[in-house]
Amino acid sequence: MTVQAGSGARTVTSLELRRTGTSSIWDTNSASVYWALGAAASLDSALLNAANGTVNFAVADGGAFFLFASDTTPTPFTSGAGFTLTANFADGSVVTVTTTIP
Predict the structure, then answer these.
(1) Cβ–Cβ < 8 Å for 49, 41
(2) For residue range 78-102, what is the model confidence (pLDDT) as tens digits?
């Protein structure tokens, strides 16, 4: 996920990833029953999640971070699958974006 340049530095406080049209959900809410969603500063760095799965980390203006969601059988990550990511920030703003796997 990339924070759009010009939007300012942000602090991420929660994340949720949902596959469109299914019950596949990953999040950073330790009280939910869903799979944990991991976040990291790079593909090979440690997760930014706390031990209970929650997040609270800064992202620079124009910065990026990577998401990690566990796979299941059958895999939800197939060509044509749609996903919605919701990110909550410390300033109270919420951003929702959608994407489709090519």
Answers:
(1) no
(2) 999 999 999 999 999 999 999 999 9
